[in-house]
Amino acid sequence: MSRFILLSPARAALWRRIPASAMLLVLIALACIFGPLFTSHPFDRVYPDYVLAPPSLEPSPNASEARDAVEELAARLGAKIVSMDSTGDSVAAKFSSDRTIDAAALAALPRSDRIGPPRINSSGDGGQNVGLNIPLLRTVFPFGADANGRDLLTRTLIAGRVSLAVGLLASLVALVIGVLYGAIAGYAGGAVDALMMRIVEIIYALPFIFFVIVLVMVFGRHFVLIFIAIGAVEWLDMARIARGQTLALKEKDYVAAARALGASPAAIIRRHILPNASGPIIAYLTLLLPRVILLESFISFLGLGVQEPLASWGVLIADGARNIQGALHLLFFPALFLGATLGALQSFGQYLQAIFADAHVGLESEPR
Amino acid sequence: MPQRALARILAAAATLFVVIALSFFLMRLAPGGPFDSERPLDPKIAENLRRIYRLDLPLWRQFLFYLQSLAQGDFGPSLHWRDFSVNELFAHALPISMRLGAEALSVALLVGGALGAIGASTGAGLRQKLGAFAVDAAALIGVILPAFVIAPLMQLLFGLTWRILPVGGWEDGAWRNQILPVATLALPQIAIVARLMQTSLRDVLAEPHIRTLRAFGLPPRHIYAHALRAAILPTLSYLGLAAANLLTGSVIVETIFGIPGMGRYFVDGAIGRDYTLVMGTVVVVAALVIAFNLLVDLAYAWLDPRIAESASR
Questions:
Q1: What residue segments make up the domains of chain B, in order of their start?
Q2: Which residues does chain B have within 8 Å of residue A288's beta carbon, measured at their own beta carbons?
Q3: Mind telling me which residue stretches traverse the membrane in this protein (chain A) (predicted)?
C-alpha cells in the first residue's frame, strides 16, 4: 500500500506494467540467493535416517517414526520398552534391561538424525530400570530429501545459484564477444563485414555443444571453464544483432558529426553506437539466458558439468531421473524451478523485444 | 548456379578442415597423455608406445598423419574400449543415430507442419482457435520442458506405470524401443517447426497472389497447395540447424534410453577421456551437419528461384 503513496500515479502505472514473468524471475533469484540462509540445513549435510524422505511440511520425525527411533534405541541398549509417552518435543520412556543403562552406555550410542542424546530421569535396580527423556529432533524437509539424505529444498536453491550464476556469466562472455565482433563488422562494412558475417554463418551450423563438452573434458570440470566455454560458443546471434544495430546507427547524423570532429572508430562505437544499440541487445541477452542455462543443465545432466557436492539444476534433475520410480519429487522440484526460470526468461525477453521493436532502428530480418 | 554450388562446397570443405584442426589441437592441449596411469610405465615401454602411436613426432607431422588416416577413413584405435577401433564402434553406432535422427526429423516435419498449418488459418471458428492454441502450447512445452525432463517422465508413465513400452534399450531397433526416443527427440523440433510454419503460412496467405486465387473461387485445398510451396522456405532453412539440434538431443536421448549410438559413445568417451573416440565423434558429427547444411542450401536455391537469380546477377 505504501508504494502508492511513495510513487506518483505515472510511476505506479509503470509498476503495474512490470510483467509477471519479471516478478517471478526476481522471486526465484531472491529465493536462491537468500533462501539457503533460512532453510536450516546446510546444502551438503547428510541425514542417513531420511534418505529419499518424501516432501512434507510436517516436521520429521512424525509419531510413528519417533516410535521406530525409540524402538531402535531400545534394541541398541538391549532393553525392553516398558512404557512410552510422547509429549510433542520429546518422548518419556521407561526401559528395562539386563544390563546397566547409565550415562556411559548412552554416550556410546551412535548419533541419530531423529532423536537427540537421551537423558536419564530416574534410575532403579542398579540402572536396570530407567526412565529416559528422549528429545525429538524436529527437522522439516519441504521438498523431501535426496538419495543421500540431503535436504532437497536447500539443494534446489543452491543449485539455482549455480545455474543462474553460470547463466549470467556465460551470457556476459557471449555479450562481450558478440557485441565486439558485430560492432566491428557492422562499422567496418564492405568486404570485412561480408567476410566476418560469412564466418559466423559457417560456424552457425556446427553442433557446438560437442565443442563445449570437449573443452570441459580437456581442461577439467571447473565452474569458471564451463561458463567461459558456453559463452564462447553462444555469441553468434549476439554478433548478428549488434551488427544490424551498428549498420543502422552508423548512418545517423550524430555519428557523422562525431566522425567530422575527428573521433576514432573505437570511440564512436563505444560512445555513440553501443549506448544507442543497448535496448535490442539487452532484449536479446534476456533471450540468451534461458539457452545458456539450459546448456549448462544439459552438460551437468550428463555428468560433465558442476561436480558434487555442489549442484546445478541439471545435476539434480539427473539425480531425479535416476530415482524416478518411488521418488518423483527428486525430479519434480528441480524441473519446476528450471522450467519456471526458462519460461519466465523467455517471456520477459519477448516482452523486452516487443518494447524495443517500437523504437528499433532497422533490425534486419534476413532468414537464418 | 553451378558457381554458387561450387562456392558452397568449398566453404563446407574449409569448415570441416577447421573443425578437424580445432579438435586435433584441443586434444593435444590436454594435460596428461593417454598412457599416463597411476603407476608410471617403464621409460623404455613408454618410449616404444609413443613411437608406435607417433606421439614422438613434431605436432605438425602428427597432424598430417591424422589427416592422412582420416582421408583413408581411419579414426584410429579407441583408448577406452581397447579391443575396438573407433571405426568398428562407429560402424555399429552411426546407423542407429542416423535412423533415430531421420525418424525424429520426419515426425517433427509432419506433426509440426500440420500443427502450424492448422494454427495459421485465421478466423473465429473453434478449429482455428484450437490450432493456434496447440501451436502456443507446443512452443511453451518446448521452452519449459527440456528433453532431459520429458524423457524420464515418459519412461515413468509409459514404461513403469502403464507398462506398455520398454523403458530403454535398443533390441536391434524394434519399433517398440524406438517410440519414446523418437518422441523425445522430435518434441522440441515440433514446437519450432509449428511456429515457423504458422508465421510464414500466415504471411503467405495474406499475399496478393493468394487473394487472387481466392477471388477465382478455388477450393481451400488448392489455395493451401499454392501457399505451402512458398511457406515451406523458412522451415527448409531451419533444417540445417535442426540437424545440429537433433544430434545434440541424441546425446541426451541415447544416454537416458541406453541406446548404443554416437551420442552415447561421445559421452562415455568424454567421461573416460577416450581422446580418439571423442575426436572421431566430433569430426563425424560435424561432417554430417555440414553435409546436411549443404544439401539444404542447394535445395533452397532449387525451390526459391529468386536466390539463383540474385546470385547470377
A1: 2-71, 93-272
A2: none
A3: 20-38, 162-184, 204-233, 281-306, 326-345
Backbone φ and ψ for A135, nearest 5 degrees, come out as -70, 140
Instruction: Please state the domain count of chain A.
Output: 2
Mutate which of A197, A204, A210 to test chain B, going by most B C-beta atoms within 10 A?
A: A210
ipTM of the complex: 0.82
- In what order do the strands lie in the sheet containing A79-86? A79-86, A90-97, A129-135, A119-124
Residues 95-114 (B) with a CB less than 8 A from some CB of A: none
Which residue out of B10, B144, B167, B248 would a mutagenesis test of the A interface target, given it has the greatest number of A Cβ atoms within 10 Å? Answer: B144
A365–chain B nearest CA distance, Å: 12
Smallest Cβ–Cβ distance between B234 and the set A208, A340, A367 belongs to: A367
Query: What residues in A contact B21, CB-CB < 8 Å?
Result: none
The pLDDT of residue A9 is 55
Chain B residues close to A210, C-beta within 8 Å:
247-248, 266, 281-282, 285-286
| A189 and A282 fall within a common domain | yes
Which residue type sits at B147?
A: A
Shared-domain flag, residues A102 and A149: no
User: Which whole-number Å values give the CA distances from A238 to A249, A278, A354, in the listed order?
Assistant: 16, 12, 17
Residues A291 and A350 in one domain: yes
The set of cell numbers assigned to B136 is 502456443
> Which CATH architecture best describes the domain B93-272?
Orthogonal Bundle (1.10)
Cβ–Cβ gap A339/B149 under 8 Å = yes
- pLDDT tens, position by position, A14-44: 556 678 889 999 999 999 999 888 888 888 8
Min CA distance, A166 vs chain B (Å)? Answer: 18
Find, among A76, A139, A149, A146, the residue nearest to A108 by Cα: A76
CB A166 within 8 A of CB A289: no
The reply to whether A120 and A96 lie within a common domain is yes
Residue A4 lies in a domain: no
Model-wide pTM > 0.90: no
Question: CA-to-CA distance for A116 and A137, rounded, in angstroms?
Answer: 6
Rounded Cα distance, A168 and A332, in Å: 24
